[in-house]
Amino acid sequence: MHFYDRIESADVIFKVEKSDNTDNKICEIRLAVPGNDLFSKKQGRTFEEDVVETIAALEPQLKRIKKDRAVPEYQPEINPDLIDTF
Length: 86
Known about the structure:
Number of domains: 1
Low-confidence stretches: none
CATH architecture: 2-Layer Sandwich
Strand order of the largest sheet: 1-2-3
Shape: rod-shaped
Order of helices and strands: EEEHH
Number of strands: 3
CATH superfamily: Ribosome hibernation promotion factor-like
Structural class: alpha+beta
Radius of gyration: 22 Å
Number of helices: 2
Largest sheet: 3 strands, antiparallel
Mean pLDDT: 87
Helix content: 25-40%
């Protein structure tokens, strides 16, 4: 999927937390975008599940940034007085 053209870099970190609990795998993703870094961290039983959940948590952040930073479409100003002159 394509969400945002201005991602400069991504840091992905996998950790295993020392625990008796089976939900001890951690995935962190930090996306560097102009102005802010986006971050998400998920913990679960497998790294595969964590990656999917972490990306799913980043998607709305990327969509929000894309919407907030969108360049408005150029709308030329039309002077109604000039319309009849042509």
